[in-house]
Write the structure tokens for this entry.
Amino acid sequence: MTDIMERTRPNPLTGKRVPQRDPAETTDEALDAGTLAELDDATLAAMARDELARVIIASGHPWRVDGLESQLPYADRPTLLRMAFLARVCSRHRLQVAAR
């Protein structure tokens, strides 16, 4: 039972235990501003919730606040999609400013 408790954490909204991801186990490829800026609408729309969360986190968006990453798993898909579109806009703008 201890092993299960170590691999889970309480959901702050429901109090139920949910799986806990270990950042050391993640094998995500790097998402830089160029990659994010090149994502088209169809690609973003086809992404799963965890992929959308990765895009948002990787964007380095100025409106990101402490604790955002821990709250993303609880966001609904439309909210994540809107945030991913904003992250893409931010990445495109950053590349345009850097090119000047």
User: Anything to note?
Assistant: The first strand starts at residue 8 and ends at 10. Residues 77-99 form the longest helix (23 residues).
